[in-house]
Each structure stands twice: as structure tokens, then as C-alpha cells.
Design brief:
single chain; alpha+beta; Fructose-1,6-Bisphosphatase, Chain A, domain 1; D-Maltodextrin-Binding Protein, domain 2; 2 domains; eight-stranded mixed β-sheet; five-stranded mixed β-sheet; about 25% strand; globular; binds 2,5-anhydro-1,6-di-O-phosphono-D-glucitol; binds manganese (II) ion
Length: about 325
């Protein structure tokens, strides 16, 4: 009989953290139910509002955000939340010896895929709060490098509802069993293969990429006639959760790099809600994550909603990308 998520958490995390993760994942099971109802549940389509990043909000972005806020506030170990869909930090209770965690999430990742019935997901990250004096958490409490995360995970709402979770010691996967409504462990040790022949990038942006990224993709496209000496395949789902999940299962490399359309913006994806949790998961599964300048998890954040260039997945490919970036710097 596979372990249930609760059994796994009770043996791997301290009780407050275990309960916070269980509560977050429960909210995701609720989102999964809504996603399955589709048009019948009146969750499709866009709203007139925009989020803090200037993106048009989908109904499901807002519904998922509200569901996570309402559910997670009940976890006594939680001091505050921050979300891709909210301008400011959402304090729950003053930080103290019990309420000593901060939760961040991308409530609905892959919004452009909601209306077309393609896999979407939720990404979450948990940071420790600095317990000094009893006070409400502020944005400054959240601005910690990704290596500080005590847990990170994502749930894919796809043909199956799958949770991939790390508590900082390897990565486990769970499947929501519709027959019992339980999260059952379906992988004990997720491992990203070091080598791969698959890359994921939105190639429509090719003309805007920086030279090292151009060169990397050119080498992949040259296949067995080029310096890589092997043919590559390409996939792009446009839901980071689904693209990263494929990499967690069979390897690959995912890129959403800086590009020159908006030179002052570091990238499209968000450091705190997307890049950091995914990077911890990928590293814990034996892969690597590079932000174009250095290791993703070492970045000292300066803003809650800051963007970043993302290159993560199979270690051999991330190392190649790193080498090309270093070479470009050295010859500049
Ligand atoms: P979100 O739906 O949370 O805004 O995230 C969408 C992100 C990410 O999931 C995906 O990899 C990327 O945007 C797709 O971007 P393009 O549409 O530019 O390909
Ligand atoms: Mn997202
Ligand atoms: Mn989102």
C-alpha cells in the first residue's frame, strides 16, 4: 500500500510545517475539482482586472488565489502569504514561535491554457520567518534567497492530478486518487536524468534572445550534424508546471531567458513564485538551475514580484548553457 501524503509529511516535517503543507495541498485538490468542471463550473474566461504585473487576470487566477488564501490562513504555523496575483503581502497572524512560516504561490500557472483544456498547475514555496519580536510580516521578510526555502512543490492539473514536493531532502511525487480522494505516493525519489535530448523554449522569441541562448539553441537544432553530435526534440506547453513536470519525469531543459523586447526586464517568469520553487525541486532531483548570471537559488531578491531569466533541468544542458554564457562574457 503506498504512503499517504499525511503519513509522508508526519515522518518528514515538523508538525506545524506538515500541517501547513497539507492545508496548501488540500486547497489544490479543491482547485483540481473546479478545473475538472470546466465550463460547467463557470471558471473559464478572463476578467477585466489586471494583476500587479499588468497581466489580464483569468477568472480561475482569482478563484484559485482566493481558495488558497482562505484555506491556508487556517494553518497555525503560517504568518503571511504572498502571491503572483496580489500587489502586497497578506499577513495572517503576527510572527511568533508558532507562526513562523511564510507561504508564496503562483495560484494558477499556465493561465493561457485554461480555456483550451491543456494542463495547468499551482506552484508554492515556503520560507522561514525570522522570529524576533511578535509583529506582522512585511515584504522584507519574504526577500530571502531561494536556498532558504524549507519546502516547495507544485500540483499539475492534467490528465492526472499530481503533487511533486520537496522538504529539502530529495523529491517525492503523489497522485490524487479520485477513488479515495487521497494523495498517494507514486514516486519516492524523483530524479532528473543528467543527459537529455529534449529542450523547451518559446521559439517565436528567437530573434530577441541574447547571443549565448541563440547559440545554444542553434547547436541543438544542428542535431547530429553539429557540435553536439545528437538530434534534439522540442516541446513547449506554455504552462511552466507541465513543462517542468515532463523534465522531472524524463529529463530535458526548460528556458525562459531574458530577451531584448524589454531589455530592462530580467525575464518573464517570477523569481519568488515560479523560478525559486521550481529550482529547488529540480536541484533536489539532481538537476541544475541557472539564471543567466549564476545559480538561481543564490539570488538575493530585491522585490516580491521581481522577474528573472530561467534555464533549468538536466545538469549537462544547464552546464552547457552556463559555459556559453561565460564564454560570451569573456569575449565581450
Ligand atoms: P502564468 O499563467 O502564471 O502567468 O504563467 C505563465 C508562464 C509559464 O507558465 C509559461 O512557461 C510561460 O508563461 C508561457 O509564456 P509564453 O506564452 O510567452 O510562451
Ligand atoms: Mn506562472
Ligand atoms: Mn499564474
Amino acid at each position: 500500500m503506498p504512503l499517504t501524503l499525511d503519513q509522508f509529511l508526519n515522518s518528514g516535517a515538523e508538525p506545524g510545517l506538515a500541517q501547513l503543507i497539507a492545508t496548501t495541498v488540500d486547497a489544490c485538490a479543491g482547485i483540481a475539482n473546479l478545473v475538472r468542471r470546466g465550463a460547467v463550473g463557470e471558471i473559464m474566461g478572463a476578467l477585466e482586472s489586471e494583476n500587479v504585473q499588468g497581466e489580464v487576470q483569468k477568472k480561475l487566477d482569482v478563484i484559485s488565489n482566493d481558495m488558497l488564501l482562505a484555506a491556508c490562513a487556517k494553518a497555525p504555523a503560517l504568518a503571511a502569504m504572498a502571491s503572483e496575483e496580489m500587489d502586497d503581502v497578506h499577513p495572517v497572524r503576527p510572527i511568533d514561535a508558532e507562526a513562523r512560516y511564510l507561504l508564496l504561490f503562483d495560484p494558477l500557472d499556465g493561465s493561457s491554457n485554461i480555456d483550451v483544456n491543456v494542463s495547468i498547475g499551482t506552484i508554492f514555496s515556503i520560507l522561514p520567518a525570522k522570529v524576533d519580536a511578535a509583529r506582522d510580516a512585511t515584504a522584507a521578510d519574504f526577500l530571502q534567497p531561494g536556498r532558504n526555502q524549507v519546502a516547495a512543490g507544485y500540483v499539475v492539473y492534467g490528465p492526472q492530478t499530481t503533487l511533486v514536493l520537496t522538504l529539502g531532502q530529495g523529491v517525492a511525487a503523489f497522485t490524487l486518487d479520485p477513488a479515495s480522494d487521497q494523495w498517494l505516493q507514486t514516486a519516492e525519489k524523483v530524479a532528473v536524468p543528467r543527459e537529455t535530448k529534449e529542450f523547451a523554449i518559446n521559439a517565436s522569441n528567437m530573434r530577441h534572445w541574447a547571443p549565448p541562448v541563440q547559440r545554444y539553441i542553434d547547436e541543438c537544432l544542428a542535431g547530429d550534424t553539429g557540435c553536439r553530435g545528437k538530434n534534439f526534440n522540442m516541446r513547449w506547453i506554455a504552462s511552466m508546471v507541465a513543462d517542468v513536470h515532463r523534465i522531472m519525469v524524463r529529463g530535458g531543459v526548460f528556458l525562459y531567458p531574458w530577451d531584448k523586447r524589454e531589455p530592462d526586464r530580467a525575464g518573464k517568469l517570477r523569481l519568488m513564485y515560479e523560478a525559486n520553487p521550481m529550482s529547488l525541486l529540480v536541484e533536489q532531483a539532481g538537476g541544475a538551475s541557472f539564471a543567466g548570471t549564476g545559480r538561481m537559488l543564490d539570488i538575493q531578491p530585491t522585490g516580491l514580484h521581481q522577474r528573472v531569466s530561467v534555464m533549468l533541468g538536466s545538469a549537462a544542458e544547464v552546464e552547457r548553457l552556463q559555459a556559453l554564457h561565460e564564454e560570451a562574457l569573456a569575449t565581450a
